[in-house]
């Protein structure tokens, strides 16, 4: 919900300047300016539902998902990279050309193969740490800007 609140404020969603749609498996409290859908973004029709809720393609896709951690660093890293890959695939289905994708990556960031894939789909890819994140936190994000893709044809 926190990122949705910030996004709604940034785009002026309450006054109708922009739209923010949040998708989550779990129920989320109502946030002014945020249109919420409780659904699995992995569902086959999830991209179509999101596009319908927005009334067109997205300019930004943000993923704040994180897997349950096991305490085993390599396993946890594989899980977060898997989530980022899946979220990136979703983003390429719904983004406007030139769009932006942001995903939580944690301490070691996104792995080289994932970064290479993002660089094929986006003109700029880098890791960022939000100013709001504690210095000792392992929280990092991968930021991909300038989506190169065109609109995908419906099957």
Topology:
Elements: H1 2-11, E1 20-24, E2 34-38, H2 46-54, E3 58-63, H3 73-94, E4 95-104, H4 112-121, E5 122-128, E6 141-147
Parallel strand pairs: 1-2, 3-4
Antiparallel strand pairs: 4-6, 5-6
Short description:
The protein has helices at 2-11, 46-54, 73-94, 112-121; strands at 20-24, 34-38, 58-63, 95-104, 122-128, 141-147. 33% of the residues lie in helices and 26% in strands. With 155 residues, the protein is α/β, with parallel strands linked by helices.
Counting DSSP E segments of at least 2 residues, the number of strands comes to 6
Q: In whole angstroms, how far apart are the ends?
A: 33 Å
What oligomeric state best describes the polypeptide chains here? single chain
Helix/strand/pairing category: alpha/beta
Please indicate the percent range of residues in DSSP E strands (runs of 2 or more): 25-35%
With strands numbered from the N-terminus, the spatial order across the biggest sheet is: 3-4-6-5
What's the main sheet like?
4 strands, mixed
Q: Name the helix and strand elements from N-terminus to C-terminus, one letter apiece.
A: HEEHEHEHEE
- What Rg do the Cα atoms give? 15 Å
Instruction: List the uncertain runs.
Output: none
State the share of residues found in helices, binned by percent: 25-40%
User: Which of globular, elongated, flat, extended, rod-shaped describes the shape?
Assistant: globular
The total of helices stands at 4
Q: How much is the average pLDDT?
A: 86
């Amino acid at each position: 919900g926190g990122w949705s609140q910030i996004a709604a404020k940034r785009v002026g969603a309450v006054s109708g300047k922009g739209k923010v749609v949040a998708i989550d498996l779990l129920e989320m409290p109502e946030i002014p300016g945020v249109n919420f859908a409780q659904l699995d973004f992995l569902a086959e029709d999830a991209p179509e539902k999101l596009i319908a809720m927005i009334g067109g393609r997205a300019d930004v896709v943000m993923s704040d998902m994180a897997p349950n951690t096991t305490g085993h660093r390599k396993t946890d890293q594989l899980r977060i990279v898997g989530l980022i890959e899946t979220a990136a695939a979703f983003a390429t289905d719904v983004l406007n050309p030139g769009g932006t994708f942001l995903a939580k990556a944690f301490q070691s960031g996104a792995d080289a193969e994932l970064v290479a894939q993002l660089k094929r789909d986006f003109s700029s890819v880098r890791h960022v740490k939000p100013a709001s994140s504690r210095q000792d936190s392992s929280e990092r994000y991968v930021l991909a800007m300038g989506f190169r893709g065109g609109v995908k044809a419906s099957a």
